[in-house]
Amino acid sequence: MYKLIIRPLLFCFDPEKVHYFTFSAVRFINKIPFVSSIIKNVYQVNDKKLERNLFGLTFKNPVGLAAGFDKDAKLFNELNNFGFGFIEIGTLTPKPQEGNPKKRLFRLKADKAIINRMGFNNGGVFEAVERLKKNNNVLIGGNIGKNKITPNDDAVEDYIICFNALFNYVDYFVVNVSSPNTPNLRALQDKEPLTKLLQTLQNLNKEKPNPKPILLKIAPDLTNEQLLDIIDIVSDTKIDGVIATNTTISRDGLHDINKTEIGGLSGKPLTNRSTEVIRFLSEKSNKAFPIIGVGGIHTVDDALEKLEAGADLIQLYTGFIYEGPNLIKQINKALIKKED
Length: 340
Known about the structure:
- With about 350 residues, the chain is of the alpha/beta class.
- It has a single domain (about 1-340), classed as TIM Barrel (Alpha-Beta Barrel), CATH 3.20.20.70.
- Helices cover about 40% and strands about 15% of the residues.
- The protein has twelve helices and 13 strands.
- It has helices spanning about 1-10, 15-30, 35-45, 75-80, 125-130, 155-165, 190-205, 225-235, 270-285, 300-310, 320-325, 325-340, and strands at about 50-55, 55-60, 65, 85-90, 105-110, 115, 140-145, 170-175, 215-220, 240-245, 265, 290-295, 315.
- It has an eight-stranded parallel β-barrel, surrounded by five helices. A three-stranded antiparallel sheet has the order 5-6-11. Strands 1-2 form a two-stranded antiparallel sheet.
- Helix 9 packs parallel to helix 10.
- The longest helix has 17 residues, at about 15-30.
- The chain is globular and about 50 Å long.
- Its cofactor is FMN.
- Monomer.
- Pfam families: DHO_dh.
- GO terms for molecular function: dihydroorotate dehydrogenase (quinone) activity.
């Protein structure tokens, strides 16, 4: 039904407007008596075989929603009904910001992809915290970044603000230094500034009564030498894992008319590269840390390939938009079947 009727209808309109419309629609239908229960019955797959235990957390299944979809933590309870094992909110910044000028979100239907240059548009971390206080037992990741106007020399302070504000309301943290849509942000992926940032957060984390897992989200455009640096940084700072990967600035092999738009590319064209990065990190580190695989998961085979390459969990974003919520169910059922 989604791919035959709903998606073609939604894809007739501006992607960003459709995003906000969909949010309103999902929120509305979940308020109708019994509808949330029906959605759960249709899409959720509950089986102990799907559980994953990583960095002290129990994930009910390994299929999560990537950051960027529910930036402001407005719909995590309702989205959880579709069968996700965890929801990552953000990227959040200390101060609210509008993001980049519109139009800033583009479908590449010929390539099953999306280009976005949103620019960390969000209402600020403190507004999100108020909504997270209403969490109905959803496992939440908090993806944090810096404000656009904050110079890189002061970026650590922005991450500290977000870390402290979210600490009691998320289950794990993701440090985002890999979005291509905030000027100079990716410079923070260099070894020296990244080590300083992660070590500062780790030191702060250790002062807490119950430290939270900290993960790093990296770009798919890093060279092998830079990926080896990432392995060293994870070892040195003792953070808990890596999310591979964010969107790419590459435009190789695209066909759609929107391929020249500036921004981060996600979706099917990223499938192979993100898997390559996962496999490289897993093999070169000798599986020294958990990896969450994300990038171009549109089918069950895409998901299994990520897991076989070394991912411990996976996340959907563009695949969820193109394929619909049934993809979560299909992946989880395939994982159960594989273990039988």
